Amino acid sequence: MDSPGNATIPCGFLLQGFSEFPHLKPVLFLLLLAVHLATLGGNLLILVAVASVPSRPPMLFFLCQLSAIQLCYTLVVVPRSLADLATPGLGRGSPISFLGCALQMQLFVALGGAECFLLATMAYDRYVAICHPLRYTAVVTPGLCARLALACCLGGLAVSVGLTVAVFHLPFCGSRLLAHFFCDITALLDLACTRSYADELPLLGACLVLLLLPSLLILSSYGAIATALRRLRSPGGRRKAASTCASHLAVTFLHYGCATFMYVRPKSSYSPRRDRTLALVYTNVTPLLYPLIYSLRNREITAAIRRVLGRGRQGQGLCEP
C-alpha cells in the first residue's frame, strides 16, 4: 500500500461492492440477475422488432441505436457485479486491475455520452417531423441519420477518453478500496490524494459537453415543438403530435435527471453508500424502463413486437405434432 507522501499510482483497486452485507448478497444476486435478464430481453426484442421492419423510419433507426447502447451499457457494469456477488470470501472487496478499471470507466462514460447526444438527435428528429412535416423526408434522410448516429458514438468516445486520461493521471495513495460496485468517476475522485477543486474540472467539462449542450438542444427543439402545437387547431392532431414525443421525453427526463443528480455536484457532497445505491438504480432499473416506455407508447414498436412474437408463436405451432 502506498504512503500519502509517495502519492504513487497503485497497480489496481479493490471494488467494495456489497461485501459489508454478506447476508444480503444472495438476495441481491437473484434480484439483479432477474432485472439484468429482463433488460437484455427487452432491448434485444426491440432490436429484433426494428430489424424486422422493411422500411425503417428515422425514429425507429435511432431507437434501435438507443437499445444497442443500453444493451452494451448494462453489459459493462452488471456481469462483473453479479460475478462479485456470486463469489464467496472476497473479504473487503474484489480486486480489479488499473487498466481494467480505466477501461470500465471509459466504456461507461462513452456509452452514457453517446446516449446523451442520441437523445438530442432524437429531439431534433421530432422537431423536424412536427414543425416541418412537408420537408421531413427531404431533411432527415438515411444518410443524415447514419452520420448523426456515428457522430453520437464518436462524440461520447472522445469525451470519455479525455475524462479517463484526466482522472487516471491523478495520484492515488493510501487505501485502494473503492466504495462502489464498479469504477465510477465520483468514487475514483474521492479516492485521489489531492483535494483541490482543480481535480473536478475534467468532470465539470465532461458534464458541460455531455449534459448541458445536449439538454440545451433538446429544450430548444421542444420549445419550437410546443409553439407549433399551440398553433394547431385540431385537438386530435395536437394529441397525436404530442404522443409521438411522450416516450422520448420520459426517457430524456430519466437519463438526464439521474446523470445530473449523480455527477453535477461538488466533490465534498460525495457519500459512498448513497451514491452506490443511486448507481444501483441508475445502472439496473433505468435501462429496464426504456424498453417498457417505448413498447407501451410507440405504436410502430408495438406493432413490430407483435409481428415478431406472432411469428414465434406460428413457428411453435408448425413444430407441434
From TrEMBL:
Its main location: membrane. PROSITE patterns: G_PROTEIN_RECEP_F1_1, G_PROTEIN_RECEP_F1_2. GO terms for molecular function: G protein-coupled receptor activity; olfactory receptor activity. The chain crosses the membrane at residues 27-53, 59-78, 98-124, 144-170, 203-229, 241-264, 276-296. It is found in: Cell membrane. Residues 42-294 form the G-protein coupled receptors family 1 profile domain. It is a multi-pass membrane protein. GO terms for cellular component: plasma membrane. Keywords: Cell membrane, G-protein coupled receptor, Glycoprotein, Membrane, Olfaction, Receptor, Sensory transduction, Transducer, Transmembrane, Transmembrane helix. It comes from the Eukaryota. Gene3D superfamilies: Rhodopsin 7-helix transmembrane proteins (1.20.1070.10). Belongs to the G-protein coupled receptor 1 family. Putative odorant or sperm cell receptor. This is Olfactory receptor.
